[in-house]
């Protein structure tokens, strides 16, 4: 019989092993740190991301979908990573990825819309906070020249607020010719606001280069593009990417595999392109909530509560799963249908970014996620 | 800016080549109340909300039947078709709104439509709204834009699109007939959903600082139970309204309610209507609405004296909207010579289309352009609506996209004498540098692209 407490203990021990050696590298300025936040919109199924294959209920609840994990378990553990996550799996082996299972924000209803509002704003309830937690994070980082960029046509809620943010996305709009751009630039020279915005936009576009991209649909190219905007002079230190299409109400097996493969390709290309900067990088992948434990009548899953989050990057104290595993028996489930959340997503986010940027974890928690009482999770980042 | 260019650009939707410069800009604005058409042909021909709800509810039925019969593939196909229709209807509704904006001789009144539509926002980010978001503006906002705040509030929040957007349609009184019956049969207790009641107080009337408590929200939500939409299983025996809303008394929480210190003993839907009437004329509502209007017309830092005047007008006129518009037009703060605002994407895109004599774009391309610019109609990220402060729109990539769109529109246009057009649109407010660079342009097309990208065009 599987013991939930034993498992938690073993994962904590596995994590602390990497803390044994004192760090010899010279102190780095905060601006050398990179943070990429990827929001999976549509409620990515955490039980598909990181399947609890050793839980006795899993096979029965997940039917044919459980076959996807045959022989792919994480070494010696309760969980198996979905096989579409090849690059992520490799990072886990290199102790550069960790997973948080049975995690959820404070939101307990099942509207994507509200769930995303909670996770982006950082409020305890939907619409209680008007700006975004990534924007407030920027206010906590002392460096003045830090740049944040949404890889998106407009600035998502998580990045909205008092701190100035940039946005960039390849577009299908035919680029204006160079001569026109130069002349527009001359007109804006006498206008401080437009002049600055135009210069900033041109700088970002120059950094992106001629991507030949018309949109953000090719995941691998998006990964490369994100990296190209986060390395070199004037690069963005904080970036957000929105990953859409995780709402798998029917035919989940194919849909999830496709989605996961895409995200994995994005992450793989991003890691490759970041090169040495990867060592200073933290990637957080999170979603608004999870999905029902039992499959529905159309081989999909409906809106649930507990899900999984991933932390990746050279900065991550990886190679472990953080989970106070609640179990999948009927009585263990939230409202009899969802994975019971035993970790606060906000505590993971606050703990991770505080560790990464060298901030006081309590201050980070208070600022980024006001009205949340959970303690920030520590030990997520190599120190 | 000159008074004419302020009337055209700050209050209106931008000048057109054929527009006569008004002798009296204030009068030109106020006369629009006579010219405004709440139901122009392009908009009257759009599907109404009842049809849209039926297709939305159709998805629920198809899904259930497919699940029960095991014919999942066929169900998926039907759902795809329903969604395609909803998407098509959305594109057509956006195009109709755009056409009306470009053609309108009452642009100030149209601007007020957008203002209120955004104040009472519904959003197609909730997919189910796609087919009916346009209908919400066309049915609930347009007819009341020159009426009273109370009537618009009722129409906007008691509309099926709003009921679906903010989850009202399933909200059930815990002691309602239906809940009691369900409990007796051992079924799940049907419950209250506070979403709409909260947003009415927070966003639509009193404002976040308007002095209400969580208990007021819950009480108001209880009073609102019973409001649902026509066509759901629950509403089978409900009384239906022409707009597709329905009243199901058996979902209503019985008893009297106390909201903001006042007790309401009315029966049925009269109770929520009475509460709506109270909050519609509340001093906090006057302040909230006045502040938003002043921010819209006088700048991101709304001048307090103007807010105070509008508040007074709101209270004295009992929320008469034309009285408020008149007070705005008569406020010196709204006529300051310097631009007060960075145009929103919608305002800017309509202004450049009016400047170039209309649009030769098809509907889908028009919607794509709004998407690229970042403000598709009825698509805000939250019930708060699209932001109305310059910093939200004056973003680096957004600006460069505008220049690219300007180049596209200029290429489609056949305007010839660009220096004269620039002078016509902005009169003496045209910057020397804009005038100079337009005169040096290597072609009329490039000159027009420069005009459409100019600081004068970006702001109002």
Automatic annotation (TrEMBL), chain A:
Residues 1-27 form the signal peptide. Keywords: Signal. This is DUF1501 domain-containing protein.
UniProtKB/TrEMBL annotation, chain B:
It holds the Pfam family DUF1800. InterPro entries: DUF1800. It comes from the Bacteria. This is DUF1800 family protein. The lineage of its organism: Bacteria, Pseudomonadati, Pseudomonadota, Alphaproteobacteria, Sphingomonadales.
